[in-house]
Design brief:
Largest sheet: 3 strands, antiparallel
Bound molecules: zinc ion
Structural class: mainly beta
Oligomer: single chain
Shape: elongated
Number of domains: 2
Number of strands: 10
Strand content: over 45%
Order of helices and strands: EEEEEEEEEE
Number of helices: 0
Distance between the termini: 12 Å
Length: 85
């Protein structure tokens, strides 16, 4: 589940992924201890679920017939539209 999509920084926050523990010292914070925080993850590290084969896959870039860059699934070789996550 993607919690936040921080487009401007190319980072996303994903539920249960990239949890960092922050140690809070008593003082300014109300409670001392360890707090778990979901840290933003760069989109290049997020696996895409391919719309064609429904597998988590790596994305490659190649030139299409018009010479434009096109993203494709390295598993099934299908082009991935821009609108896909
Ligand atoms: Zn695929």
């Amino acid at each position: 589940m993607v919690r936040q999509n921080l487009m401007e920084r190319d980072r996303v926050v994903i539920e249960g992924v990239n949890i960092v523990k922050k140690h809070i010292k008593r003082g300014r914070a109300r409670q001392a201890g360890i707090v778990e925080v979901e840290a933003p993850l760069h989109v290049s590290n997020v696996r895409l679920i391919c719309p064609s084969c429904s597998e988590p896959t790596r994305v490659g870039v190649r030139a299409d017939a018009d010479g434009k860059n096109q993203r494709y699934c390295k598993k099934c070789d299908e082009a991935i539209p821009r609108s896909a996550a």
